[in-house]
Specification:
Chain lengths: 273, 76
Amino acid sequence: MSDATATITPPSREAGIPKLSVDALTVERTLANGERIVAARDVSFDIATGEFVCLLGPSGCGKTSILNVLAGLDRASAGRALLDGEPIEGPGPDRAVLFQDPALFPWLSVRANVELALELIGVDGDERLERARAALASVGLSDVLDAQPHELSAGMRQRAALARALACDPSVVLGDEPFGVLDAQTRELLQNEVQRVWMGSGGRTTFLFISHNVREAVLLADRVLVMSARPGRLLEEFRIHAPRPRDLDDVLVGRVVSEIHALMLREQERPGA
Amino acid sequence: MPAARREPGRRSIPGMTDTTEPAEPTLAELDLSDEERVVLARVAEVLRRINFGTVVLVVQDGKVVQIEMAEKFRLR
């Protein structure tokens, strides 16, 4: 029974300033034909330091728009996005972003890709090499340090992108469906990898992943926020207290997955949705 | 089973024992071990905290080794 106390921890969100905060955020986008659409409307949530949150919703519900605002790549039309209580004005090395596409420089080796990220934040010399090596080792890429990205599988490229993100020791990792295009098996491997990395960060690194994969969200997150179809609003929040690493076969994981599936189906069938 | 516990409107036939419902022993009659008390106390603690959700007890070799839960909040 000694384990049980560790698995059920009260939400720490009430204490202190949240790491990330989205306050009545509305994001509009302009389409190529000039039409303005509301991607997300009046969305509010806080994320505490060290939390792992997944934002889940159907395509086009504004998940990416919200993430882009938090990454500093896009501006809010209304409302605020805060990092450590300060308004987010632009991108910064404190927030690493993982995209669906690994976005490695094709002319640089895997190691050089990671080193470049470190160089940009001012890490030089031996330390840079050491940190690049350590980051690549942590995602199991020690044998391919000098390979070019095109020589690697899609899964390995995404691992390299993860290593590049982690090498800079960001306080926040934002993932925009980072495993979206991978095959099911590679995807599961990387999900386990991310669980391991998050556990190893000892509550220092905050993760926000967006996904439309319910199983992935429940497997990874402390909290799953479910959004409606466009314009995206928050529908329900699931707080999952279960030890990691989790498994897709876990009873609780399966139960929450089916509950969220049912919720999303109801939402899709709702008149006017 | 004491008659007082029976649902209202349910008739009992004199001389017959109702076996369709298991008897509900009181907590004192259960004769719980210390370990069982700890488990039940933890479960009660969880139940007091959540309004909607799921609680899962993981049992290994006859012992509860883990309590997991998922809490649900409606935001709209």
